[in-house]
Amino acid sequence: MHMKNKLFVTVISGMSLLGLLSYEAEASAPYDGSWEALQDMPVPAWFDDGKIGIFIHWGPYSEIGYRKGGRGYAEHVPKMIYRDPEHYYPYLKERWGATPPEFGYKDIIPEFKAENWDPDEWAKLFKEVGATYVVLTAEHHDGWANWDSDLTPWNAVDMGPHRDLVGDLGKAVRKQGLKYAPSYHRERHQSFFAKKLYVVNAEPLPDIAEEIKRNPEAASLYGPFGTSKEFVDSYVARWKEIQEKYQPDMLWMDDFPIYTRDGNQVRKGTAKPEVKYFDDQVRDMITDFMNDGAARGADVYVNNKGGNRNWPDGVGCLEKDNLKLKVIGPKWQSCTTFGTSFGYLEGDKYKTVEGVMHEMIEVISRNGNFLINIGPRGDGTIPEPQVERLRAMGDWLKINGDAIYGSRYWKECDQKDEHLCFTTNGKNLYAIKMAKPTAPFTITGTAGWKKGQVKSVRLLGSKANVSWSMTPKGLKITPPRNLGPSEYAWTFEIETTEEQHHPNVIQKNAAVALQGTKAVDLDGHDSAKVKNVQGSTVVIETASSAHGFKQLVPTAGGQRIKANRKTGNDPLSSLTDGKLAKGFGPIFGNGITDGAYKMDLGALRPVSAITSWSYNQKGRRGSQKLTVYGSASLSDPGWDLGNYTVLGQIDTGACTAPFTAASLRAADDKTLGNFRWILWAVSPISTQGGGENTAYQELAVETTGDVS
Q1: 303 pairs with which residues across the strands?
Q2: Which residues pair with 475 in a beta bridge?
């Protein structure tokens, strides 16, 4: 373990030099290098009280701003270029005029210039919107260093922006009184550009190997490959350089997939020698960081990322991407995206402002911190939808901050029937109403309270009097007509005679607390629960004959149709001929549970409706269960649903009519989006034969000004 001793020149009477050095070592190095010692690290007050952080994914990948399918983690595209050349090479050819190995990720780096970046403007914005700490990617999985590094030429001072991004932002945010944590994601770099991900013995992809052969300097960007001693030592050395140059307030590390892949289960005691060495060195690295903070008098902290936690529970705060615990958990943090990507993705699909506000409140009510991510463009400007959401967050916090900063959880985190979330601060209980409070409501968690326990109730941001009374069911609050300037959620401050924080209600077992939360997709495929495009509707029409439809009338279209599995009966082209035959139509065999049809619209088109027809042969094939997807890709996006945008779901339920049509339709004067490819992913409608898929007669897509 690396230890630092200081030489004191002050003479203390009665204490020998040896005793002085021993005293200093004990005082400045509280962590002895064991996981057990690190499990006792306290949660710093700045973190527990601050609640709101800004995460920033920014690097050469921001200059690309694209991902196949238009959603997901765009910061992973540097590796995906080489892993999916059929899609990305044509994209590179069209945009840059060349493809690997002549032109690769290393050649995009010079375009990352940060030419419009003003770190002081960023820092002022972060302060204005209520953040208390900032986490900037010092290095992502791609091997690029955003700081002034002496260990690699692939850094922001020697290339690209030609300025110290980590250092300049650190100075700016600390000037605003904010804490600072350059994040570190190099734990996956050793296989990021390799043939296989998350393996110990990794080999470079063919075109990566050829790029290195043609330009040997590229080896220090794309490599080293595999979890070798060279890689582990470089991992520790780079962090040590960050630590010494910038003195971070937090050691933020990403998931370590190698800990639970390729035959390893590190926390269960199973690890290949290379991975055991990695874990040992990282434990020492964390120890050194914590002891260095203690020596400087700084309250530093660590995160513990992943559903499969990197470290033993208690070593830092629990964290996952877009994490939403359903219970009050051990101290945790949600690194949360506004859209589907962390890095800049042009045209990303953003969460609603209201959705972001509610997510923030729910996280904090359950003992979490809200680390909201922005993905700036390569030039250093922040996309307008992200700024809009940051500003909305800041406006809300200016009014309701008393319920957030310095708060702790209550004995209950929410009350679903009234759309309430709760926080506490001393003797104050905060009831945050997520639905506009237009009628009286009762807080059932206060049942049994006496009137004398409540001193006052007020609505934050409003000067209007709030009526309240104690009832057998709990505190009943009658909101005033004037709700003040708050939007999206309204906070009622309840002043009581007793401390309201209940530390005994926490679910201390992290594994239990994580139950029911979404699994993290390490490659950033969006797998959120399907929601229909906002404003769209599902229209269902039945008919007794092929010519009986009045609203959803099939017409012939010229689009090409493919299927991801072999079909029988009619040819696929019959799905676009405009005819409803009394037969099965093109159909997958029994037992197929993931059948899909894909239509090529020929060009990017604004889609207004997507419709399908089916025939109820033998009384069981009229039902339709499917999810509809779209892609704006220049080339065929294949069959991976992660490459598509989810447009909506259709389930007609049991159908007895001879013919059934189902249509996902945009609101008037709106579209479902601009797409070239539409995919129908069908679900089994019965369990006979292991699952039977819908038997389609027709598939059609309507575009504005063009009906297919």
Answers
A1: 317
A2: 443, 470
Nearest to 477 by CA among 410, 413, 412, 430: 430
Q: How many helices (H) and strands (E) does the chain have?
A: 16, 27
Distance of alpha carbon 400 from alpha carbon 403, whole angstroms: 6
Please tell us whether the domain made up of 31-321 is placed in CATH 3.20.20.80: yes
Cα angle value 241/8/37 (rounded, 5°) = 55
pLDDT above 80 for 377:
yes
Q: How far apart are the first and last CA of the chain?
A: 69
The pair phi, psi for residue 507, each rounded to 5°, is -85, 100
282 three-state secondary structure: helix
**What value does the mean pLDDT take over residues 589-609?**
84
Asked if 339 and 351 count as a contact pair (C-beta separation under 8 A), the reply is: yes
**What is the Cα–Cα distance from 628 to 650, expressed in whole angstroms?**
8
CB atoms within 10 A of CB 634: 13
C-alpha span between 411 and 503 (Å, rounded)? 8
**668 Cβ contact list (under 8 Å, min separation 6):** none
Measure the CA–CA gap between 242 and 576, rounded to whole angstroms: 60
User: Residue 566 is encoded by which pair of tokens?
Assistant: 């072999």
Question: For 529-541, how does the pLDDT look when each residue is reduced to its tens digit (9 = 90+)?
Answer: 567 888 899 898 8
Alpha-carbon Rg for the chain in angstroms: 29
How many Cα neighbours within 13 Å face the side chain of 417?
6
Rounded to whole angstroms, how far apart are CA atoms 465 and 463? Answer: 7
**Banded pLDDT at 24 (limits 50, 70, 90):** very low
What's the distance, CA 603 to chain centroid?
Answer: 31
Question: Would you list the domain boundaries of the chain?
Answer: 31-321, 414-505, 537-707
pLDDT band at 697, cuts 50/70/90? confident
In 439-471, which positions are buried (b, 16+ CB within 10 angstroms) versus exposed (e)? eebbbebbeebeeeebeebbbbbbeeebebebe
- Give the mean pLDDT of 98-115: 98
Phi, psi of 313 (to 5 degrees): -60, 140
Q: Which of 168-177, 181-190, 313-322, 633-642 has the lowest mean pLDDT?
A: 633-642
Nearest-angstrom CA–CA distance, 572 and 570: 7
Q: How far apart are CA 511 and CA 303, in angstroms?
A: 16
Which candidate, 652, 670, 677, 672, places its Cα nearest to that of 662?
652
DSSP-assigned letters across all residues of 117-153: --HHHHHHHHHHTT-SEEEEEEE-TT--BSS--SS-S
CATH class of 414-505: mainly beta
Residue 419 · residue 437 · CB < 8 Å: no
User: Residue 167: phi, psi to the nearest 5?
Assistant: -70, -45
At 689 the pLDDT is 46
E-only strand ranges, 287-397: 301-305, 317-321, 332-337, 368-374
Residues 6+ apart with CB under 8 A from 7: none
Which CATH number is 537-707 given? 2.60.120.260
CA distance 183 to 165: 13
DSSP string of 393-439?
HHHHHHHHGGGTTT-B--S-SEEGGGTEEEEEETTEEEEEESS---S
Alpha-carbon distance of 225 to 661, in angstroms, equals 54
Residue located via tokens 């045209």: 347
What residues are paired with 686 via a beta bridge? 692
Start-end of H helices in 247-272: none
* 3-class SS of residue 571: coil
* 220 close to 129: Cβ distance less than 8 angstroms: no
CB atoms within 10 A of CB 116: 12
